[in-house]
């Protein structure tokens, strides 16, 4: 687990790296050299060698400058060091035209001069060839993004699809299409076949409206998108169905910032999230309340996983803040066996009250059998 935000006066933005060993946390000391900035809502992926790939986020750099980032970093597990693969490594703002707005180049053509716009809350994954992929996010101060990027070592970034236009609920730029609309804080997975999936987020629907979404998308090997489940419009109430019973009509309610992980069988898991827009930078008064946070747990079986394939299953939890773990958004989640999982922190309801704050609780499931 890397970085994030702690709302205590002594901490703020973080870039510390931790490993969970059993039920105990171990702080990882990195080797000498450069390190990423202290950021929140960066996107993090792990390759087949166990190396970490970090992109973007919002926070503060080593020079004390605050802003959005579009730097790509790799952490080597074997050498315990970070290396800057792309981008300036420092905060950028709307005044930094090249870095803030990006250089798209020619679609599908990689170049070492291309660079995605600075952003937070994007979705990322690493394909079976070891290439890093990026979708959407909150693009600096300009709005949400729906662009897809691929980074190949030695060749640089290639813009693979989506729009270069920033979308905003305050303008006519929040327009829909047959591909995923612009959004921030979607939940993302890679299944057992290497296919990338993402769910929901806060952004634009097919009619150009802004809000929380519950659409589920997958990307094929050619970079094309396919919508598998959910509503094409914002604010869907979903359908819980019967606990532990998969059904084609089941759908999680619309949300953003839910924790996501893949189990050993390639099934997709989803926990928590919020209906509040906590990613619209500078808007204010958009922090979640106990009533806008979820603590429900869902499983989705891709077509390759057999019984119940292509359906959502409500596994447990509800929207009530008294249930454990409490409702939260932006938590970290990991698979821990065939159907067990771990969840850490997030911005949510503190134990024994309805106060919403940054959490540092760790929850470990005992497994799910049904």
Describe the secondary structure blueprint for this structure:
Layout: E1 2-6, E2 12-21, E3 24-27, E4 38-40, E5 43-46, E6 52-55, E7 58-60, E8 66-68, E9 72-76, E10 81-86, H1 97-101, E11 123-126, E12 132-139, E13 143-152, E14 156-161, E15 183-184, E16 187-190, E17 196-204, E18 210-219, E19 225-229, E20 259-262, E21 268-274, E22 293-300, E23 312-316, E24 328-329, E25 332-335, E26 341-349, E27 356-364
Antiparallel strand pairs: 1-2, 2-3, 4-7, 5-6, 6-9, 7-8, 9-10, 11-12, 12-13, 13-14, 15-17, 16-17, 17-18, 18-19, 20-21, 21-22, 22-23, 24-26, 25-26, 26-27
> How many angstroms separate the termini?
30 Å
The structural class is mainly beta
Q: What is the overall pLDDT average?
A: 86
Elements, N to C (H/E): EEEEEEEEEEHEEEEEEEEEEEEEEEEE
Task: Report the major sheet.
Answer: 5 strands, antiparallel
Count up the domains. 2
| Percentage of residues assigned to helices | under 10%
| Uncertain spans | none
Nearest-angstrom radius of gyration? 19 Å
């Amino acid at each position: 687990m890397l970085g994030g935000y702690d709302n205590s006066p002594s901490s703020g933005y973080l870039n510390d790296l931790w490993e969970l060993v059993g039920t105990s946390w171990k702080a990882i000391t990195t080797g000498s050299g450069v390190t990423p900035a202290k950021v929140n809502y960066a996107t993090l992926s792990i390759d087949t060698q166990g190396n970490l790939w970090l992109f973007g986020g919002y926070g503060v750099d080593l020079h004390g400058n605050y802003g959005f980032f579009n730097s790509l970093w790799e952490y080597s597990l074997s050498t315990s060091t970070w290396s800057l693969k792309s981008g300036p490594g420092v905060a950028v703002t709307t005044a930094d035209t090249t870095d803030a707005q990006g250089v798209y180049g020619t679609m599908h053509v990689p170049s070492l001069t291309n660079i995605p716009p600075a952003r937070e809350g994007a979705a990322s994954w690493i394909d079976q060839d070891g290439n890093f992929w990026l979708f959407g996010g909150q693009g600096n101060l300009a709005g949400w993004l729906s662009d897809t990027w691929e980074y190949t070592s030695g060749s640089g970034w290639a813009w693979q699809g989506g729009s270069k236009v920033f979308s905003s609920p305050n303008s006519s730029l929040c327009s829909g299409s047959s591909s995923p609309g612009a959004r921030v804080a979607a939940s993302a997975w890679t299944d057992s076949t290497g296919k990338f999936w993402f769910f929901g987020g806060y952004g634009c629907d097919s009619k150009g409206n802004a809000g929380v979404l519950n659409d589920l998308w997958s990307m094929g090997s050619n970079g094309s998108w396919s919508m598998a489940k959910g509503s094409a419009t914002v604010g869907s109430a979903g359908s819980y169905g019967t606990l532990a019973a998969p059904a084609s009509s089941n759908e999680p309610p619309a949300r953003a910032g839910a924790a996501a992980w893949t189990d050993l069988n390639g099934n997709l898991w989803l926990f928590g999230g919020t209906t509040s827009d906590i990613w619209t930078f500078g808007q204010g008064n958009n922090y979640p309340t106990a009533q806008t946070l979820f603590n429900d747990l869902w499983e989705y079986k891709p077509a390759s996983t057999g019984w119940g394939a292509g359906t959502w299953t409500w596994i447990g939890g509800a929207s009530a803040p008294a249930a454990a773990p409490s409702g939260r958004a932006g938590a970290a989640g990991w698979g821990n066996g065939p159907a067990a999982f771990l969840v850490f922190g997030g911005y949510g309801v503190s134990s024994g009250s309805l106060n919403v704050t940054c959490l540092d609780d760790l929850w470990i499931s005992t497994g799910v059998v049904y």
